[in-house]
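agent> Task received from the user: take the single chain below, predict its 3D structure, and emit structure tokens. No templates, no multimer pairing.
agent> Plan: (1) validate residues, (2) run structure prediction, (3) serialize to tokens, (4) report one or two observations.
agent> Step 1 OK, no nonstandard residues flagged.
tool_call: predict_structure(input=
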Amino acid sequence: MKKALSAALSLALLVCLHAGASAGEPTVLKVGILDGWTGFPTKYIVDQGLDVKNGFKIEYMVFTSGAPANESMVAGELHCAIIGGGATIPALANLNAKMIYETNNDTSGLGLVARPTLDCTKISGQVEKYPKILGSADTVKGLDILGPNGTLQYFAALKYAEALGLTTADINFISMDANQAYQAFMLGEGDIFAATNNHSFTLVQDEGMVMLADLDTLNCAATAQVVCSDAAFTDPEMFKALTAYVKVLAEVADTMNGNLDLATKSYLDWVALNGGTRPESVARAIMATKPYYGVKATAEREFGKDLLDNFVEFFIMTEQIEPEQREQIAANVRDDVLKAAGLKK
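)
tool_result: status=success, residues=345
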């Protein structure tokens, strides 16, 4: 009897010790990040040990676009991911995922790049509502714009034409793949190139082209954001880890915005790590816009407004979602994590 009692007590002690060790381990947060400039702040957090210092441990997977990250969340392989609006809208509309934090302005440099010989590049201040855009209705009407249809570049072209009082009938949008459009533009085809920042900064800085307008100057900024699965959002332990992650991301955002050299190097190192290249001048130009939303910016921003006003409009315009899905999307823009992190009141 005594031996049995002793064995039972020993077993109970082992169970307690195992439970105590487990309780002391940080919660693992599985995060999807992209191979571009939205991804490296998370890598910085891991490299600096800021996750473990704040009671959680990041395991990240790298993606080239947001849609596969959504698939991994559905499969339970990720708790959350930092993705752009193009992947966020279907995640919120169809997967009941939750948008919990805006990480950065994702549209800096996404706009209309024109040849410097065009008259529209020499005219400014024609539209009171958009004082920073160049061009006028007369100088843009009838021009050929190269770019991929059904994308944010296409959306930028439509918003630019609209800002000048033109319609789609007044411009010639010639649809082609982004890289194909870039090559065609460099070979002298078209008047205007609807570009992302993968091409626009290089064209302006190195080729002498002129940015007529981008989504920022058209008041159509879009964001990248942390989107989490409903399962992670409703799990108390994972909610706590998400809260810590968002708080650290906001603090690192301020670090990157405040140190151009560090941000540029971190960006270039991240691109190289993922097998890519980018001119240092382009990386520095992007980082100089201070694109990340830090602690103060997050507190002051109207959370979700850019996504709901701009991306949802774009998705409805291009018939990728139904108008009635807007309500479901808005319901999944949740500030609970921001409030728990002290980033919103």
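agent> Step 4: summary for the user.
The first helix runs from residue 2 to 24.
agent> Done.
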